């Protein structure tokens, strides 16, 4: 199931790679590549690991994940244009599976993972589903049910949020980032590299699920979610 379909991949006025939304907003830029790689490094991926990636973007995180040759690499992506590039990527790399849709729609259909990289794109039309909670808060409420014992979760984090969960250990590192002047979505000189380690999957799984009622795979919310994405595209 695809959702949005308006992303455009190209170069900015400085000749740097960029991803634009259908509204002309910057979604991802080339300066993020090094930061994404640091977040992936923090996962300490092993060849036996099952990796889940939320959001393909410009393939920076996906490409770096593949350097560790994980047992499996599942990517959830909802944008139609980006999906085409993701599918080409999967065809060129062993063990990569592309799941079309949003994590809110598709995560409950998947199994267990050892490493999870989270970098979704927040569509304004869907922010009402988050209420006062951050995307990270709602994501952890759901994804911890899919984490094996010892699993690690990392991803894009611009500001400090509460990542503490029962059965988990949290570490956050601040790193400097070189953001160009033409970037209009990241006004900071530093970013955060979070690592949530599941030390007890049974406890973490029991503590998850608090944000499930706001997600798309409940019947009523599913229709609302689908309409919101249709309007967004």
TrEMBL record:
Q: Which CDD domains match?
A: AdoMet_MTases (cd02440)
GO biological process terms held by the UniProt record: creatine biosynthetic process; methylation
Q: Which stretches are transmembrane?
A: none
Q: Name one GO molecular function term.
A: guanidinoacetate N-methyltransferase activity
GO cellular component terms, semicolon-separated: cytoplasm; nucleus
Q: What is this protein called?
A: Methyltransferase domain-containing protein
Q: What is the lineage of its organism?
A: Eukaryota, Sar, Stramenopiles, Oomycota, Peronosporomycetes
């Amino acid at each position: 199931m695809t959702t949005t379909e308006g992303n455009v991949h190209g170069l900015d006025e400085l000749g740097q790679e960029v991803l634009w939304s259908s509204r002309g907003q910057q979604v991802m830029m080339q300066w993020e590549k090094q930061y994404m790689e640091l977040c992936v490094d923090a996962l300490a991926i092993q060849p036996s690991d099952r990796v889940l990636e939320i959001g393909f973007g410009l393939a920076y995180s996906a490409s770096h994940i593949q350097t560790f040759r994980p047992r499996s690499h599942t990517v959830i992506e909802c944008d139609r244009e980006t999906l085409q590039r993701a599918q080409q990527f999967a065809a060129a790399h062993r063990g990569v599976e592309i799941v079309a849709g949003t994590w809110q729609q598709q995560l409950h259909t998947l199994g267990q993972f050892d490493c999870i990289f989270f970098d979704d794109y927040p569509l304004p039309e869907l922010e009402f589903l988050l209420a006062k909670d951050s995307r990270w808060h709602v994501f952890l409420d759901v994804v911890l049910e899919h984490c094996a014992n010892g699993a690690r979760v990392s991803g894009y984090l611009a500001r400090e949020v509460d990542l503490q969960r029962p059965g988990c250990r949290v570490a956050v590192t601040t790193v400097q980032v070189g953001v160009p002047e033409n970037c209009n979505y990241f006004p900071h000189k530093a970013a955060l590299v979070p690592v949530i380690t599941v030390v007890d999957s049974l406890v973490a799984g029991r503590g998850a699920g608090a944000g499930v009622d706001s997600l798309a795979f409940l019947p009523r919310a599913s229709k609302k979610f689908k309409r919101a994405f249709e309007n967004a595209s």
